């Protein structure tokens, strides 16, 4: 434990994940996947659950195969469950369940997709009223409509800042 007045080294994992996500968003999906997998190996199965959750969630987006994407999103949810009372983790649940719903929809597993989109909607109350929160809520609404879930979707009038 650091003594009073000493500084501890900041946790660099979130920044490292963020750098790789920027690489992915810049179009280098293969390199992003490779770097995220290297970081996953470095963290190990006993690494910080929030880091593993975030990392697996982003890793899912780097995969083309819907089964692989689902496997990584399930790893993200499993890691989140280890710290379910954490405010930071609770804020990830809407996006985690939305991703799982989309994964299951791609695989034609509509009952599972509907279950997760309902969970995403139920968890969305923790989202901040900002561009990200509005975007996630709008995406939940679009998927609810696509799945015929009967959720509130567009009738809530929640605009998307992501253009749709």
UniProtKB/TrEMBL annotation:
InterPro entries: TPR-like_helical_dom_sf. This is Tetratricopeptide repeat protein. It comes from Streptomyces lasalocidi.
């Amino acid at each position: 434990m650091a003594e009073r007045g000493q500084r501890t080294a900041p946790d660099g994992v979130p920044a490292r994940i963020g750098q790789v996500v920027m690489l992915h968003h810049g179009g280098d999906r293969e390199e992003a996947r490779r770097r995220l997998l290297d970081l996953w190996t470095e963290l190990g199965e006993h690494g910080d659950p929030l880091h593993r959750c975030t990392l697996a969630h982003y890793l899912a987006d780097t995969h083309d195969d819907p089964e692989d994407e689902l496997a990584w999103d399930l790893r993200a949810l499993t890691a989140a469950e280890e710290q379910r009372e954490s405010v930071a983790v609770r804020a990830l649940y809407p996006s985690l369940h939305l991703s799982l719903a989309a994964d299951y929809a791609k695989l034609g597993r509509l009952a599972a997709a509907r279950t997760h989109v309902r969970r995403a909607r139920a968890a969305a109350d923790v989202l901040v009223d900002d561009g990200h929160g509005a975007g996630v809520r709008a995406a939940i609404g679009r998927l609810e409509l696509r799945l015929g879930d009967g959720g509130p979707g567009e009738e809530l009038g929640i605009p998307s800042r992501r253009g749709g």
